[in-house]
Amino acid sequence: MAIMLSAALGMPVVSSCSEDDPVPPEQQPPGGGEDDDPNTGGGGTPGGNAVLSVSQQKQKLKNAALELTGKFSASEFQYYSDLSGHIEGTLFEDYRTTEMENWYENCLDAITSILDKEESEGYGGYHYVITYNKRIYAASAFKGHFTAQNGRWIRTDADDLQFTFPDQTGATCVVKLTTSGRTKTVYVSDTEDWDWTYDTQYITVRKNYLSVPENATLTLTQNGQTKVSVNIKTDLSSMAGEKFDLSRDAFSATADVKVDNYTWTVSRAAYRANGQAGITSELKKAGQTLLSVKVAADKVGFDEDSELTAGEKVAFEANVLGKVQFKGEISNLKDFVNYLKRAGENDRSESSFKSNLNQANSLLKAGVYYDGNQTWQAGVKLEPFCDRGYWGEEWYFEPVIYFDQDGSSYSIFEDFFNEEDFKEVIDKFEQLIEDFSEMLGLDDEDDYYYPY
User: Fold this and answer.
1) I need a labelling partner for 129 at 20 to 30 A (CA). Which of 111, 115, 275, 365 fits?
2) How would you class 324 by CB atoms within 10 Å of its CB: exposed for 0-12, middle for 13-18, buried for 19 or more?
3) Antiparallel, parallel or unpaired: β 161-166 and 172-196
């Protein structure tokens, strides 16, 4: 996805330390004409199936990037930023929350079970206490209706979880979580909590689990009108036991997220141990599809610690506004991931880093297409770059679009997506980030770095 969005937005990168890699013959498109109209093929002939010139492609990518960034505005999300500040700064600081806090602690106690406990004496009589426990987070354990009124939160018994409160405009908001159907327990993580007294150290080692329901719905309404809704449906029928195990089980899920005019839909997310896995998703605004993604993988497997153990062919496709498509495949996922992992482990060795990255690229065949046509227009690959400083060299990689026409190969991203050619796109993208940063109260200089 990073490859696709980077390309769509025309984001530049720093200078490469590498040489251009040859393009495989089967990926070399025929040469196009020099007509600058991005809506015609080579030589200026309309039709859409001819290979476009480099200048035409740059213009099409620029147009798509400008249109995509123009679909988003920080002001559309200002309400939610203000609401978050209102909840944190007013409803939880100025309102009495004693009843809510006591209820929450009781809920945590109810979902936590002690597995073991160890005590020992250390140097100078210092005492150590280690407790091992298990905590299963389940929506069914957190129930009640809370209402913010008269400077306090009041709870009443209920079969679901709901919070009613005035927002920053005085409108009545309701956040509600409901679940239904069977559940399966999924391991999430291990955590440790440390505490001390003057002569004792307390350590709590906890295994955390999540109880996944078949159906879950979260909504936010304002004066009865739905502003946010999240609906997730999970098929648990193929799970072998009460606990989900990636090494042996399977699942499928769908999700639908709506925020005002935006809709993000996952129409398919599926996984079967050592079998097929995939996801189909799209982002819409006011009914128009902005981005869509499809990924399908064969024979994917993980162990009980969620480490990839198997993975063969992966096919993927991303579509930006129906105007720019990125399609391709990875011939062997497990090897691809391992090569990238080894490259990262050897990021101080140029030869080792490039060798592993080249091996990864040999498994990646991806291209750029326009307007839904099936003509390969440009390629996508991972290219090595380096940071140099007092610490020496540190290598990393970036996804790049490369063009190869009339026997000429241009694989360095910045040769095309540079400050001069794509200044308008870069400025608009930077302004979008700055608007969100300002809305969230972040210091741009401290929290963001723009390599432009």
Assistant:
1) 111
2) buried
3) antiparallel
Residues of the chain with pLDDT > 90, as a percent, come to 52
Is it the case that residue 52 has pLDDT exceeding 60? yes
> Count of alpha carbons within 13 Å of 12, Cβ hemisphere only?
21
Nearest to 161 by CA among 111, 97, 107: 107
pLDDT band at 42 (very low <50, low <70, confident <90, very high): very low
Closest by CA to 232, choosing from 178, 280, 194, is 178
Confidence tier at 403 by pLDDT (50, 70, 90):
confident
Q: Is the predicted pLDDT of residue 4 greater than 50, yes or no?
A: no
DSSP code, position 145: E
Under a CB-based contact definition with an 8 Å cutoff, are residues 345 and 362 in contact?
A: no
Radius of gyration of the chain (CA): 27
Long-range interactions of 259-268: CB distance < 8 A, separation 24+: 259/77, 259/80, 259/227, 259/228, 260/76, 260/227, 260/228, 261/76, 261/285, 261/286
Cβ(201)–Cβ(129) below 8 Å: yes
CA 159 to chain CA centroid, Å, is 33
DSSP summary character for residue 16 = B
* Three-point CA angle 31, 36, 41, nearest 5°: 50
The DSSP bridge pattern shows strands 225-235 and 250-259 to be: antiparallel
pTM score above 0.85: no
Please state whether beta strands 127-137 and 200-222 pair in parallel, antiparallel, or not at all (unpaired): parallel
Q: Which amino acid is at 297?
A: A
Q: Which two tokens stand for residue 227?
A: 């502003």
Q: Distance between CA atoms of 61 and 320, rounded to whole angstroms?
A: 10
In one-letter notation, the amino acid at residue 439 is M
Q: Residue 363 has what DSSP assignment?
A: T
Number of alpha carbons in the 13 Å side-chain half-sphere of residue 297: 22
Q: Which amino acid is at 354?
A: K
| Six-digit token string for 365 | 């065949």
189 C-beta neighbours (distance < 10 Å), count: 9
Report residue 168's pLDDT band, with 50, 70 and 90 as the boundaries.
Answer: very high
Side chain identity at 353, as an amino acid letter?
F
Q: What is the average per-residue pLDDT within 100-113?
A: 94
Q: At residue 371, does pLDDT exceed 90?
A: yes
DSSP 21: P
Q: What value does the mean pLDDT of the chain take?
A: 81
**DSSP structural state of residue 14:** P
CB 167 within 8 A of CB 148: no
